[in-house]
Design brief:
6 helices; binds CU-O-CU linkage; 562 residues; binds copper (II) ion; mainly beta; 3 domains; seven-stranded mixed beta sheet; Immunoglobulin-like; single chain; five-stranded mixed beta sheet
């Protein structure tokens, strides 16, 4: 079945399928993962000799889609078709600019033939995945219009939600903003066996902000601080809302915004149950009164909608906070970073025939349905299951952040192997005073294959006038690996410290991470291991406007002793 047939079939099956053609197409996860590990492929550039288990043709193209009522919006989008592999590997999402979700299983050998149908250079990066440098989408690998780049990699990451987006130098912000982004879900039998909600109750949600002109067209501007839209879209749709049953749901949330930070919470102060983060499930669920989610971060939540009255509507909000760095008239005057706003409404209904509002949110079904959970369990019932199962979250680098409910700000700093200071210099955001150079690697940016290191990021922009009114937040991201957060040091400046207090209790610092937020004045230490691949990889701020302005550097992994 090709991707358009999948979409069409979906559209015919459900009345909300105009919006959600993916429902109930479940992927047979939990089936054997029998692909032989092609260890000879590891550590080498894609060779082309490995027969892939999954082959996908992917294109970036100009398109249009209805977003607001009236005129359609011109967008750029990823389109894909499955050439080879299990049905459901490519899950197109109708009527949104988001690219199709890819569902992978650990061990699969994947080939993706990416063709650029845009009028400018681009390249695709698989955010969070551990892949060889030739498959990582580094900006030096950009391809021009109508050129094709072939990616080959083995799926080596843990089950979890990752994503893909463009990575051309200087143009990542505008390209992602126009619509180029999609989800990657890795799932396996062990995760499926945990009894977590599946199918319609496993909801991947991409949070983004956009600004439209009077003709429903996207407006974008580059600003030193970043870009903020004045409307919140979930899976590409405004006024996001969904009819849910009085049951437990899994909400997997990606902050796919260019610069906006979310402080997610229920307005009635019901705590959020967090079961996973960037690199998959935590060892055990934790509770947060709110969750702070910076650009590119993911959080995996369990929500029991039966705890509220059936018939009621619960609205997930982003609460007010300070220190987002858009104060003082910069950024977006309509919806500043740190404003309080609605993210998405959930109408709780046990009426099986309830039809969603016409603007119901598009939700791809990406989770396996091989082991459907029939009885609606309470959230609490899941907790021991996850806990007893374990999920390997503590394998890998030994770390002080062994427990899921790890509060990095309550831990002393250790001696770091290297420190990267983040500050503005000569009107540019820098890392250790440097900006991005395509091939350059400084002596303090070379690491050895097989080694473990602690890196310290220090957000050093001073407060006050010289510091752009308190500095800016920087979500730092490292390519090629998932790291552990091992400590955070609070800002020492009193204003920065009080700003930090408005977000820090929402950090999820346990588990595996590929992106970590540093508020102004904050220092964070992360621990990582450089495995399997040598070569050139990136680390950068994932505020996409900061990244485009050069707040990005290479690091090189070399053979020991070289
Ligand atoms: Cu999400 Cu270097 O990227
Ligand atoms: Cu990345
Ligand atoms: Cu930044």
């Amino acid at each position: 079945m090709n991707s358009s047939q999948i979409a069409t079939q979906g559209l015919n099956r459900r009345d909300f399928l105009r919006l959600s053609g993916l429902s109930a197409l479940g992927v047979a996860a939990g089936s054997a993962i029998g692909f032989p590990a092609i260890s000879t492929a590891l550590g080498k550039p894609a060779s082309g000799v490995v027969e892939p288990d999954v082959e996908i043709n992917l294109e970036a193209e100009l398109s249009q889609t209805p977003i607001l009522s009236g005129l359609e919006t011109q967008v750029w989008r990823y389109r894909a078709e499955l050439v080879k592999g299990p049905a459901g590997t490519v899950q197109p999402i109708p009527n949104t600019y988001l690219g199709p979700a890819f569902v992978f299983r650990p061990g699969q050998n994947v080939r993706i033939n990416f063709t650029n149908r845009l009028a400018e250079e681009t390249i695709v990066h698989w955010h969070g995945l551990h892949v060889p440098q030739a498959a990582d989408g580094h900006p030096r690998l950009v391809i021009g219009p109508n050129e094709t780049y072939v990616y080959e990699f083995q799926v080596l990451d843990r089950p979890g939600m990752y994503w893909y987006h463009p990575h051309p130098h200087g143009r990542t912000g505008p390209q992602a903003y126009r619509g180029l982004a999609g989800l990657i879900l890795i799932t396996d039998g062990a995760e499926a066996g945990l009894g977590l909600p599946t199918g319609e109750r496993d909801l991947p949600l991409v949070l983004q902000d956009r600004t439209f002109d009077g003709q429903n067209q996207l407006l974008y501007y580059t600003h030193m601080r970043g870009f903020l839209g004045d409307r919140i879209l979930v899976n590409g749709q405004p006024n996001a809302n969904l009819v849910v049953k009085p049951a437990v749901y899994r909400l997997r949330i990606l902050n796919g915004s260019n610069s906006r930070i979310y402080k997610l919470a229920w307005p009635d102060a019901t705590p959020l149950t967090v079961i996973g983060t960037d690199g998959g499930l935590l060892d055990a669920p934790i509770q947060r009164n709110y969750v702070t989610l910076a650009p590119a971060e993911r959080v995996d939540l369990l929500v029991d909608f039966s705890q509220w009255p059936t018939g009621s509507t619960q609205t997930l909000r982003s609460l007010a906070f300070s220190g987002g760095g858009f104060g003082g008239g910069g950024g977006n005057p309509t919806l500043p970073n740190g404003a309080d706003f609605a993210v998405m409404a959930f109408k709780i209904s046990d009426d099986a025939t309830a039809t969603p509002a016409p603007t119901a949110t598009v939700v791809p079904t990406v989770a396996p349905t091989a082991t459907p959970t029939t009885s609606p369990l309470s959230t609490a019932a899941y907790l021991p299951m996850i806990f007893s199962q374990g999920n390997g979250a503590n394998s890998g680098p030994p770390s002080v952040s062994g427990q899921a409910d790890f509060r990095a700000d309550q831990v002393e700093a250790v001696q770091a192997d290297r420190t990267f200071s983040l500050y503005m210099q000569f009107g540019q955001w820098t890392i250790n005073g440097r900006t991005f150079q395509m091939e350059a690697v400084a002596p303090d940016e070379i690491v050895e294959l097989g080694s473990q290191e602690v890196w310290e990021f220090a957000n050093q922009q001073p407060g006050g006038m010289g510091g752009m009114m308190g500095g800016m937040a920087h979500p730092m991201h490292i390519h090629d690996l998932q790291f552990r957060i091992i400590s955070r040091q609070a800002p020492t400046d009193p204003t920065q410290r009080s700003n930090w207090e408005t977000v820090k209790d929402g950090y999820v610092d346990g588990g595996w991470k590929d992106t970590v937020l540093l508020m102004p004045g904050e220092r964070v230490q992360v621990q990582m291991e450089f495995k399997d691949f040598t070569g050139l990889f990136l680390y950068h701020c994932h505020n996409l406007e900061h990244e485009d302005m050069g707040m990005m550097r290479n690091y090189r992994i070399v053979e020991p002793g070289s």
